[in-house]
Amino acid sequence: EAKRTGRGRHARFHGALEASARYRRLIETDLREAIARRELFLHYQPIVRAEDGATVGYEALLRWHHPVRGPISPLDFIPVAEETGMIDEIGTFVLHEACREASRWTSDRTIAVNLSPAQFRSSALAAQVAAALAASGLPAGRLELEITESVLLDASSNNLALLRQLKQLGTRIALDDFGTGYSSLSYLCTFRFDKIKIDRSFIREICDSREALAVVQAITGLSRSLGIATTAEGVESAEQAACLRREGCTQLQGYLYGRPVPADALPERAGAPIRLEA
Ligand code: C2E
Ligand code: MG
Ligand code: MG
Ligand code: MG
Fold it and tell me: Hey, what's the signal peptide range on this chain (predicted)?
């Protein structure tokens, strides 16, 4: 009986693995075509000043509309892009697209772009960012690059040097998803970040969990002492926002202020000159 149960369990597990491997292969094959077919595009989500709710910038979030499967989450296809090396081409597309978009806005709001740790494998990363800035004419100070701590995890790599090159260009650097993973405080001494983004998992619990609140208090307190801005991710309710304001969090982002939307839905496009296609 035990044996049968065990085998059954194994069979099901094996099936799930096969299915996910198959899914990955499908994604991989189709992703190779996706850029050329213009299936990848960006959505933009506002980031507001905690004080008064004024929009200070937008985060660019990658979207893939598959012709047959419909929308596929970046959480599903970015890992495949990272494993296969396609992340370089995709990352370059995102940088160029986001900078070009922000350069045509009627405001001087910032644009935040997510960088995968896998993009740091290329020593040309800073040159790629510089090229996107030059091609679009966007001032470097309006570009914010979001990285996760895993970029700094591998002490033997030259990622820190690459990060300093990016900073040298004049871009701002934000530490994304802070509070998850290792969240070693030593990273905050190793590199001078311009901003810490507090992970959504803490914001979700902030009104109900003393522990989540304590973590948020620790992060905002530390950031204040270090002179670093903080953005709370995933703010969905006015109660969460009030609590974050009380803790001195400087910026808020989440569905309460706006979902990620296509570029042509942004208010900064309103007065933009109409482009005549040749
Ligand atoms: P992230 O950089 O932490 O982005 C925030 C995620 O939270 C986004 O999910 C956003 O849509 C979602 N979000 C924002 N406000 C709320 C809220 O109030 N409630 C909830 N439940 N969710 C909210 P999304 O767009 O699915 O992206 C997921 C992750 O995929 C991103 O997390 C980022 O790590 C990655 N990603 C997205 N675009 C890119 C990209 O262009 N390049 C790279 N390398 N990674 C990207
Ligand atoms: Mg991000
Ligand atoms: Mg984040
Ligand atoms: Mg997050």
Answer: none
Amino acid at 134: A
| Residues 47/55, Cβ–Cβ less than 8 Å | yes
- Please give the DSSP secondary-structure letter assigned to residue 180: B
Residue 260 pLDDT grade (very low, low, confident, very high; cuts 50, 70, 90): very high
Do 80 and 31 contact (CB within 8 A), yes or no? Answer: yes
- 73 ligand 1 Cβ < 6 A: yes
- Kindly give, in sequence order, each residue whose CB lies less than 8 Å from that of residue 32, ignoring residues fewer than 6 positions away: 86
Report pTM.
0.92
Tokens of 81: 């892009």
User: pLDDT for 148-191, tens place per residue?
Assistant: 999 988 777 899 999 999 999 999 999 999 988 777 788 888 89
Ion ligand 2 — residues with CB < 5 Å: 114, 146, 176
pLDDT at 274 over 60: no
110-114/55-66 β-pairing: parallel
Ligand 1 center from residue 7 Cα (angstroms):
39
Helix (H) or strand (E) run with residue 44 in it: strand 40-49
